[in-house]
Specification:
This protein is mostly helical and about 140 residues long. The protein folds into two domains: about 70 residues; about 30 residues, no CATH class. It is built from two helices and no strands. Helix 1 packs antiparallel against helix 2.
């Protein structure tokens, strides 16, 4: 019996980038729960000792800061992994976050790609002399 090549669909759930995103969410949820518990303990301690109540509130807020920081850091690291995998042509889990794309026009040097002002006559990076639309050299520059 001859061997055949068969197409098989495989679902890719993501590698470490998916785990990092999940870890960031986990830390955020734990810090929110910890903050909530600290606020409840602060309310309970309010009648007994107001200083202890302030301590619980400070601990609650203090637990939020590392949780939020971990969430942001893990999300950014997961995006870096996704981008690296995307550049390498490998499969990656999740989506790459990106800001809303803005379209705008700019003028660039055709030789090196550096952004320049339309009034410039010389590229400051590669020293290329710009020509006007009529094909003449830009005003103020001598031919070399």
């Amino acid at each position: 019996m001859a061997t055949k090549i068969v197409n098989k669909e495989i679902r890719y759930e993501g590698g470490r980038e998916g785990l990092l995103s999940g870890l960031g969410i986990f830390y955020l949820v734990i810090s929110i729960i910890t903050c909530f518990v600290a606020v409840v303990l602060a309310v309970l301690a309010l009648n007994r000792n107001p200083d202890e109540s302030l301590l619980w509130i400070a601990l609650g807020i203090g637990s939020l800061i590392p949780g939020i920081t971990s969430y942001i850091f893990c999300g950014a690291l997961a995006d870096v992994l996704r981008l690296l995998k995307k550049l390498a042509g490998e499969k990656y889990g999740g989506t790459v976050s990106q800001p809303d794309l803005m379209e705008y026009q700019t003028t660039i040097c055709s030789q090196c790609g550096t952004s320049v002002n339309p009034s410039d006559s010389l590229c400051y990076r590669c020293q290329a002399v710009f020509k006007t639309n009529s094909g003449e050299q830009a005003i103020g520059e001598d031919s070399k």
